[in-house]
Each structure stands twice: as structure tokens, then as C-alpha cells.
Amino acid sequence: MAHTGNSSMHGSSSRPQLLDLSKAEIQGNVEEKYPSILLPNQSHDISYLALDIGGSLIKLMYFSRHQDQSTNDKRMRNVKNRLGFPSNRRSYPILGGRLHFVKFETTKINECLDFIYSKRLHFGGGESRYSDSSTELNVVIKATGGGAHKFADLFKERLGLILDKEDEMSCLVAGANFLLKAIRHEAFTHMEGQKEFVQIDPNDLFPYLLVNIGSGVSMIKVDGDGKFERISGTNVGGGTYWGLGRLLTKCESFDELLELSQKGDNRNTDMLVGDIYGGMDYAKIGLSASTIASSFGKATSEKKGLEDYRPEDISLSLLRMISYNIAQIAYLNALRFGLKRIFFGGFFIRGHAYTMDAISFAIHFWSNGAAQAMFLRHEGFLGALGAFMSYEKHGLDDLMVHQLVERFPMGAPYTGGNIHGPPLRDLNEKISWMEKFLQKGTEITAPVPMTRPGTTGLGGFEVPLSKGSILRSDASALNVGVLHLVPTLEVFPLLADLKMYEPNTIDLSDPNELEYWFKILSENLPDLVAKAVASEGGTDDAKRRGDAFARAFSAHLTRLMEEPAAYGKLGLARLLEMREECLREFHFFDAYISIKQRENEASIAVLPDLLMELDSLDEETRLLTLIEGVLAANIFDWGSRACVDLYLKGTIIEIYRMSRNKMQRPWRVDDFDVFKERILGTGDKKPPPHRRALLFVDNSGADIVLGMLPLARELLRRGTEVVLVANSLPALNDVTAMELPDIVAEAAKHCDILRRAAESGGLLVDAMSTTLDSPRENSSSVPLMVVENGCGSPCIDFRQVSSELAAAAKDADLIILEGMGRALHTNLNAQFKCDALKLAMVKNQRFAEKLIKGNIYDCICKYEPAN
Ligand SMILES: Nc1ncnc2c1ncn2[C@@H]1O[C@H](COP(=O)(O)OP(=O)(O)OP(=O)(O)O)[C@@H](O)[C@H]1O
Ligand SMILES: CC(C)(CO)[C@@H](O)C(=O)NCCC(=O)O
Ligand SMILES: [Mn+2]
Fold first, then answer.
1. Which keywords are on file for this protein (predicted)?
2. What HEC string does 210-235 produce?
3. Helix or strand or coil: residue 695?
4. Element (H, E) at 37
5. Of 69, 70, 30, 62, which is closest to residue 46 (Cα–Cα)?
6. What is the pLDDT of residue 541?
7. d(CA 39, CA 27)
């Protein structure tokens, strides 16, 4: 090795490092023999890449940094000062980044080397401006699998990478443990075509049996982190299916072989019990006539020539033979050590429904129903993940489930489970790819909702029920998204019971429900695209991006219609979020920006009149009018078809008035009187005000200005601190935390209460001469503050909120959730540790019928005191 000196420069070789060479300078005398080199930008000694090079496939995991979005604006600094949340947080070297998963065929290792090169992963993810000189660097990366030994020289020669070899088994175990603890919908069962996610309690994970079906099969008893033993294995594995299958069928690819099996009928090749017993069961020992007595046993018939055996049937027989065999050995080993749980990984499974059904059936069959097979969504990436985690300094193993967000980028519906092609470098390449993939045509078409697929079959000894065309093998491939690491996310501390919490109100595993929401989203698409394109000036470029967005989102919808659990458990919140993410992916950062501005201005204009009207009312009427106002103003929702139609018929103020005039109690859910009693008391008894209220706001315009702000004002006036909680990123016409200070400042021009509270909360620092970050101490008002919620979606999942919201929640004793997304689609049934008020107008007929047995435009005022 020519450059061993380098690795000692960075300390031990077990702590590999990547160098950021930008702005590198020679320090001291250049004429010196070994002048030292200053690397001013080398801040983190972390690596970005890990490999698992197996006998059949190369699994690559790489890390990419987020573009720094945290602008650390004044609002944020102010919030930090006010709420005093920890500034000396543990710093994660990989803070704000993404983990990507890619695979290549080992025989095509050049594709893998090219991929690493083109993504500049061989010297730290494109951060360095240096290129070929990097080959002299001897950057060390973690690698596991047999290929880490076999191909070490190649990596050194071609990319200057030194492979630091990690033990394959310990990587598999580390990867599996991490996934089972940190990813919410990782493990699932698969029986008779039905996939069901299993929530594993991280405190009750061990012991388990890990069966990794790669080319060969390893069986590992896992007792804890780093505590394991390889108890068995078998040479009859994934390589056997592919290799023998190729010999017998002349198939050109693994996928082709798998696809053939779907059209197969193994009764032509397998000898069944019925074949031996004249069509009868051998009931005495529990074997039915359809049980396979001998795999390929029928292929001995002298009446048939070899060419009479169909490749389809051969592939199916082989797939069953190997799946059953592995499952049987796995079960016997589980029995040997008394292990109850068996997880199957490795790319032999390939997210293929029939393979999983077969393994599940076999485990069930031999254990007499006592054991159950479970599968992992990141099936083949266990080893690569383990290798990545073996870097000492990432802090990855400290990450918790609430700090990880899995996102499915544009290509997911197409490339899910497939071998990787060339990397897409920029937006333009993405759009071209999208255009090519979906052929020509510029019109935006909504995806046609498809009928739900049947299953590939029973997976048991029966012949597949619905064979062939229904389930393409690529449709059954499990998708693995990009893992976004967001260490600043926290669990909302006021959730009553994290374990019981389920944000989604609607169950999308009900096919009718699913179809309905898919139709809604598809129908809304052309209008959304028009808005998005307009928001970017309506240029040709914007149109092209809009078109690509529509195609990409439609593709997600179609994919999920085919297989609802493809991206993990599907909830409405996820679906709505995906739409926003997809917009952002095509650089539409705020599709509703001009609508939001217009509505804010129109509403601010009528605010003074409204405040005057309110102030003329007695306490009780005022409170009722305020709640009515919130409900009425919640009609402005660009996510609702019915409302968008409404907007065409009148101005925003006309609609607001009409909506308010129509308010009639009792509302469909009406706890107003209980809420009123808590706020105003009864008779002479005046209850103390709430200490701090968190107001989760929804839409821009009338909703925030004429609905929520006046309510906030009332609470402030009563001595309750108010924190407005708004989205971190735009979604539909929702108001964002960035936009709120300006809106509050405008409103404060018309109202002393708001002005003093906003001053006290440090929201008006720009408008005042007081020094930044030191709100007026002599202000007599309780503060009004703004925090971001950590979301970019119309819904909120309280398991993953921003740290500033979590900090604000510490002193809060009232939360008010407003709007359909946050109070109905999600969280209608959520329980909190403090008083909670949920306010929304239902702007969807089906939702109204289903959830509240009411009608569109019915209102909900649900109040649940802390118990
Ligand atoms: N596109 C593909 N090309 C080849 N094999 C595939 C493909 N997709 C799935 N497979 C299956 O996955 C198996 C490889 O799985 P995996 O990547 O987990 O193992 P490996 O690491 O290559 O093997 P080992 O761990 O035994 O060295 C193959 O033997 C084959 O059965
Ligand atoms: C050799 C390995 C560990 C390489 O991943 C794997 O292919 C395997 O476990 N093969 C099975 C060998 C046996 O135990 O019979
Ligand atoms: Mn392997």
C-alpha cells in the first residue's frame, strides 16, 4: 500500500474520515519537503458511503446533506430566547441529512463504481471542488460482504477508496436491530396476499431469529445489540433459485424468472400427495391431496419429453421448493433455541408477494400455527446499513424513531425494487426522465383509479388462485424510500399516550375509502397544477415542471392504488403530505402564494370592523361569536373541491359573512357550553385563566385573520399567553410560521391588545426601536408568540414535531386545534394531557357522513378537558 501514511494521519484506521478539501492551503514554507496542509472547511470527520458487496448484489448506502434550510431568522432566535429550549443540544454530525439506498448486480460492479464517481461519493458527497487528485487521498470507507475482500484492490485502483472491512454477520445484526427499533413500519407479516405491519416494542425485541436469504442463507440468533450467534445456514438460497432457474428456463434476468413463476402451475412438475394417493388426502398424518409430496417429482414421467415442461411451471416449483426448504430449516432452528420471532431479510425475497406467502405458509405449516414469519421493508439492505452504522461518529445509533422521516421521491413508483440506473443529477434530468418514462403528451391526466389486485395465490400447497397478469413482479417490489434524518424532531410532550396515538382518523385500508380519496386527489390535480404554474410566473419552464409534477404525483397515486402498503402503512396524512413533497421536488415552493396574499389583505381590511363589533358584545356572546367566527372562517380551504367552487361565486368577505350567518347551534359536535364554563365560569365563580394556549392555525386569509387572531386576542386579554403554531413549510393555502409575524404586525396596527402582546412576545421587534431579542420588560401584557410545527403538510402527526413546539408545550395547559387537516383528518380522536379544543368546519360530504353522521358545512366544536 503506497500511502499508508495518510491513514495514520487521521488516527486509527477503524475511524475512517473524509476530507473536505475546499479552500485547502499549504501552510508555512512551500519549499519544505512535507509542508502541512490547512483544511479550513474540514469540520466533520465523517464518511458518506457504505457498501455490502454480496455474491449476487452490491448494496450501497450513502448520505447526503440537506441544503441548509434553517435560516435562523429573527423569529427563530427570538423564540429560542423566549422558550429557552436547550441550545447545547447534542450535536449530531449527520444532522439534517438523508440516507439513500441503492443496489447493483455484483457482476456489473463497474456500474457501481461509475455511480460512486458521478455522485462524487468517493470524496465526501460532492462538497469538494477537487476531482481526480482525490484518487491520491486513500479515503477509507466501511464495507462488508465477501466482495469487501474480493474487490478491495479494484476500489483502490479506480476510486482511491480503501475498504475498511466489517464483519458481515455483525453488520446484518446491527442493521436489523436499527431498523426494528427506529423505523415505524419496518416489519410486517404477509399471508395470503395480505400485508400487515407489525409494531415491535423496542424493549421487547430480543431474542429473535434473523434469516438472511442472499445468494446463500445465514441464520442468526440475535440476543441484543452486538449479541448474536450464527447458528445455521444453508447453501440452498437465492443464488440457487436464480442459478438453477436460469439453467432450466433460459431466463435472462432474475425478474424475468420471478415473473414466469406467476404464470406457472406447479401441478405439472411437482408430485402431490393426491398423485400418490389416487386423488385422496392422507388425512391420518395431516396431509391433504394438494400437499406437495415431492418437488419436481412429476418431471420423471416417461410420457413427457423434456421440452413439454413449461418454464413457467418450473420456475414456480423451484420458487416453492427453495422457499419451503429455507422456511423449514428456519423453523427447526427457531425450535432448537426456543425463538418465537423469525424475521426474513435478503434480496431473494425482493418484496415479492408470492415468495413471502410461500415462506409464511411454510412456517405456519411446520409450526402448526405456533410461529409466524415476518419480513422487513429494507430486506436486502441490512448489511449495508450495519456497515454504515459502524462508523463511530455518526451518532446514527442514537437516532430515535421520531427523528426519521421516510420520503418517497419521484422515481419510487418506477424504480422500486429495481436495479439502479444512472443517477439523476438535477431538476432538468428529473423532468426529462419523467417525460421519457410516461411517453409523450402534454395534457395533464388524472390517474385512472384501478381495481384492487387479487393476490398471487395462497402461497400454500394450493395452486395460485389468480395467476399471471394481475401482479407484475415490479408492482410487488417493495419500495424503500429515502430516510431523512431530522434530529430536531421530537414527540409532542402533551400527548396523553404515545403508544395509543394514531394520527389518522380515516382508515385507508378500507378499499372504498382509498378509492374515494384517490379520486378526490386526482380530480384536484389539474387545478393545483394551474395554481402552481401560475405561482412561478406561468413560464414555459414552470409549465414543464408542472406537467412533470402531475405525472410524478399521478404515478405515486397509481402505484399506491395497486399496492396501498407499498410505502409502509398508508394514512390520509401521508398522502396529503406526499402531494406537497412532490410539488417541492419540482421546485414549486409555494403554489398558493398569491392567493394567500390576496386573502390576507382582504381580511385585514375588515378586521377593525370585526374587532369593534366584538368589543360591543357582552363576555358570553363575545366568546360564542369568536368560536362561530373561527368555524365560519374555516370555510376558506383550497384543499376542498366544494369550497373552491364556492370561491368562484363571491368575494372572500361575502363568503365569510354568508358562512357566519349560517352558523346555527347546536353544531354537529357541540361542547361549547363546557368550554365556556371553563373560560368564564358559572355565576360568581371566576376560574383562573389558562397559563398558556397553543393555537394550531390552519389557513391564510379570513381563517387566521378573522377567525384565530380574534380568538387569540380574547385569550390574551384574559391573561393567557398565546403561542400560534403554524407550518414550517407551505402546504395548500395554510399560513406558515414565517408569514405569521407580518400578519400579526398588520393586525396589531388595528388593535392595542394584539400590539402589546406581540411586543411582549418579541414579534414586533422589527417595527420597534427596541433592541433585537430583548422584548420590552415593562410591557403589561402576556406575550403572543409564533412557533413552527415542523411540518409541511395540511395534517399534523404529533409523534414528530419541531423542538420549538415541544419546548412551547412544556408550559401549555390548553391546545386549540383548528381546521380539517389538523383537527379532523388527523387528531379528532387524539388524547392530550391538557385541555383540548378541536374546531373545524367539515367541507367534505363523505367525511361528514362517515365521521359525524352529518352534512357538508356542519361544524365541530369538541372540547376535552384534561382529566
Ligand atoms: N436483480 C437481481 N439480480 C440478481 N439477483 C437478484 C435480483 N433481485 C433479487 N435477487 C435475488 O437476491 C439474491 C441476492 O440477495 P442479497 O443481495 O441479499 O445477497 P448477496 O449479499 O448478494 O449474497 P451473499 O450474502 O450470500 O453474498 C440473489 O441470489 C437472487 O436470488
Ligand atoms: C457465505 C455467506 C455468509 C456470504 O454472505 C452466505 O452466502 C451464506 O450464509 N451461505 C450459506 C452457507 C451455509 O451456511 O451453508
Ligand atoms: Mn449478503
1. ATP-binding, Coenzyme A biosynthesis, Hydrolase, Kinase, Manganese, Metal-binding, Nickel, Nucleotide-binding, Transferase
2. EEEECCCEEEEEEEECCEEEEEEEEC
3. strand
4. strand 36-38
5. 62
6. 93
7. 10
Ligand nearest to the CA of 256: 1
Residues 453, 471 contacting (CB under 8 angstroms): yes
Per DSSP, the residues of 85-124 read --SSPPPPTT-SEEEEEEEEEGGGHHHHHHHHHHTTGGGT
CA dihedral 542, 543, 548, 551 (to 10 degrees): 140
Cβ contacts of 339 within 8 Å, gap of 6 or more: 207, 208, 209, 221, 333
Residues of the chain with pLDDT under 70: 1-47, 66-96, 124-137, 393-399, 410-425, 433-479, 641, 643-644, 646-647, 765-779
Cell numbers found for residue 242: 436464480
Q: Residue 576: its pLDDT value, please? A: 94
Which pLDDT value is given to residue 415?
Answer: 55
Q: Which ligand is nearest to the CA of 326?
A: 2
Give the DSSP H or E segment for 80. helix 74-83
- CA 842 vs. chain centroid, Å, equals 27
- Cβ burial 765-789 (10 Å sphere, 16+ → b, else e): beeeeeeeeebeeebebbbbbbbbb
How high is the ipTM of this complex? 0.94
Q: Answer for the pair 279, 475: CB distance below 8 angstroms, yes or no.
A: no
**What is the model's pLDDT at position 414?**
60
Query: Closest Cα partner for 457 from 315, 287, 714, 263?
Result: 263
**DSSP code per residue over 316-378:** HHHHHHHHHHHHHHHHHHHHHHT--EEEEESTTTTT-HHHHHHHHHHHHHHTTTS-EEEEETT
Q: How far is the CA of 202 from the centre of ligand 1 (A)?
A: 29
Return the SS3 of 790: coil
Q: How far apart are CA 228 and CA 230, in angstroms?
A: 7
**Angle, helix 511-535 to helix 572-585, in steps of 10 degrees:** 30
For cell 412557533, name the residue. Answer: 787
Dist CA 709 CA 695 (whole Å): 10
16: left (phi over 0), alpha (psi -120 to 50) or beta: beta
Q: What is the largest CA-CA distance in the chain?
A: 101
- The H-or-E segment that residue 580 falls in is helix 572-585
Taking the C-alpha atoms of residue 709 and residue 722, their distance in angstroms, rounded to an integer, is 10
Q: What pLDDT is stored for residue 287 in this prediction?
A: 85
If one residue of 215, 220, 319, 326 were mutated to test the ligand 1 pocket, choosing by the most ligand atoms within 8 A of its CB, it would be 215
Residues comprising the chain, all counted = 867
Contact assessment for residue 122 and residue 134, using Cβ atoms and an 8 Å cutoff: yes
Q: Which residues on adjacent β-strands are paired with residue 53? A: 58
Contacts of 645 (CB under 8 A, 6+ apart): none
Closest ligand to C-alpha of residue 348 is 1
> What phi and psi, each to the nearest 5 degrees, are found at residue 840?
-165, 150
3-state DSSP assignment of residue 503: coil
Distances from the Cα of 497 to the Cαs of 82, 502, 727, 804, 864, in angstroms? 28, 10, 24, 21, 15
Distance between the two ends of the chain, CA-based, in angstroms?
69
Ligand 2 pocket residue status of 212, Cβ below 6 Å: no
Q: Is the CB of 381 under 6 A from ligand 1?
A: no
Q: How far is the CA of 728 from the centre of ligand 2 (A)?
A: 48
How far is Cα 751 from Cα 608, in angstroms, rounded to an integer? 8
Note the pLDDT of residue 38: 38
E strands, 645-699, in order: 669-670, 692-696
Q: 417: CA distance to ligand 1 center in Å?
A: 12
Q: What is the pLDDT of residue 87?
A: 39
Q: What is the DSSP letter of 863?
A: E
pTM over 0.90: no
